Amino acid sequence: xxxxxxxxxxxxxxxxxxxxxxxxxxxxxxxxxxxxxxxxxxxxxxxxxxxxxxxxxxxxxxxxxxxxxxxxxxxxxxxxxxxxxxxxxxxxxxxxxxxxxxxxxxxxxxxxxxxxxxxxxxxxxxxxxxxxxxxxxxxxxxxxxxxxxxxxxxxxxxxxxxxxxxxxxxxxxxxxxxxxxxxxxxxxxxxxxxxxxxxxxxxxxxxx
Length: 208
What we know:
By secondary structure, the chain is an alpha/beta fold. The chain has nine helices and five strands, in the order ββαβαααβααααβα. 35% of the residues are buried.
């Protein structure tokens, strides 16, 4: 876990592996043990709203890259979609009456950021990677090593790398806004973005 102090509040970031069933249990356990004032999740407003409707869970269809990701991740245990870490976080917060707040960009903001950062050359490089993803080698020494290696390769181009940096910045700002109301915050954040969000929080704290 990553702990940051900001505006007299404690923010604990729990890095989670998207898709891994075991991390659903980890998220629920962390919330029960910490009993935070509020929980932030690295989802958009729209994604969190969709997660509340369990009737559509079986309708989700994975894209090519998501299928390869799930196949490789299954080396470490059972994989499900939607990501159990976020489903469990939501269910546990509802059960314990803890506010759960989306940290990521909403659809409009993400689309604007995507159009600003991602160029045609970035899209071409992504399509090349997608076509050879099944043949690519990844670090399978641990789930954390795998998702970090996957993230480096998927977001290798400048545009996608910058887009992910903006997501980290946005999530850190959202957590800072949460400190205006809450003083003990748990953030459930995908492992690939957790360190970046923590670094952004530390940077803004030093400025203050």
